[in-house]
Amino acid sequence: MIAIGKTDIGMIRKQNQDSYKYGTLGDGSVWAVVCDGMGGENGGEVASTLAVDSISQSIARGYRSDMTANSVRTMLLSAISAANIRVYDKAMSSELLSRMGTTVVAAVVAGGAAHIAYAGDSRVYLISGNMAEQVTKDHTMVQALVERGEITSDQAKNHPQKHVITRALGVEQGIEIDYCEVQAKEGDVLMICTDGLTNYVEESEMAEIVRRAGPDGCLEALINMANERGGTDNITIVAIFS
Predict the structure, then answer these.
(1) pLDDT tens sequence across 134-160
(2) Using one digit for the tens of pLDDT, what is the confidence trace for 9-33?
(3) 15-124+133-188+236-241, what's its fold?
(4) CB 56 within 8 A of CB 32
(5) For residues 174-184, average pLDDT
(6) d(CA 200, CA 193)
(7) What angle do CA 103, 220, 134 make, to 5 degrees?
(8) Nearest by Cα to 44 from 16, 20, 6
(9) 13 CB neighbour count, 10 Å cutoff
């Protein structure tokens, strides 16, 4: 497997409040963490960096090559829960950081399966052939309206409350974390990204660019497309090629 990552400040923001890390484990499995911070002048950057560092350390310490799928799930949920406490405690220690928090996606790809734990509106896509399928669910007010049938998916794309998230790491002492597991066969790509990308690039375009540009050029091409269409937010992408 090959993992690549890239972040960009975008065209409008003065700070990059996204953070990410990825790496390879002893048995050749790959892990990645992506966070999109929020809150105050510096709070978002502090929250996302602290969360990524904490979760990365937990994965490095806790992963074993003989782990079952349930053990990997438990490890990821525990890692995010521990990071939530660290970010929350940091926020409570300073008035300047009191409103900070971050979205989170943590993934381990091992044995042909992608194990994914997440909260917020950063997304994971599985790109297989010419199709990109969103495998996470946005934790946003607008997504809740879609699920209740009050608005359509097309209406959600331009809804004024599109960016109001309902879950974030570090905001409260506890956090509800979702988990999913998808099969990733040879040739598939798992793409983790913040909403700075998904606000501007459609799923079909993601798949086409990844297939055309490959590992060497796809991230730069995707970021350039988002920036050319507005670039109003930071853009972060990690792609894992199976």
Answers:
(1) 999 999 888 778 778 877 777 777 777
(2) 999 999 999 999 999 999 999 999 9
(3) Phosphatase 2c; domain 1 (3.60.40)
(4) no
(5) 97
(6) 12
(7) 45
(8) 16
(9) 17
Q: Which two tokens stand for residue 94?
A: 């300073």
* Tokens matching residue 20: 């990410």
CB 97 within 8 A of CB 43: yes
d(CA 20, CA 56): 9
- The whole-angstrom separation of Cα 188 and Cα 125 is 10
The answer, as to whether pTM is greater than 0.85, is yes
170: tokens are: 């570090």
What are the domain boundaries of the chain? 15-124+133-188+236-241
Eight-state DSSP code of residue 96: G
76-106 pLDDT, tens digit each:
999 999 999 999 999 999 999 998 999 999 9
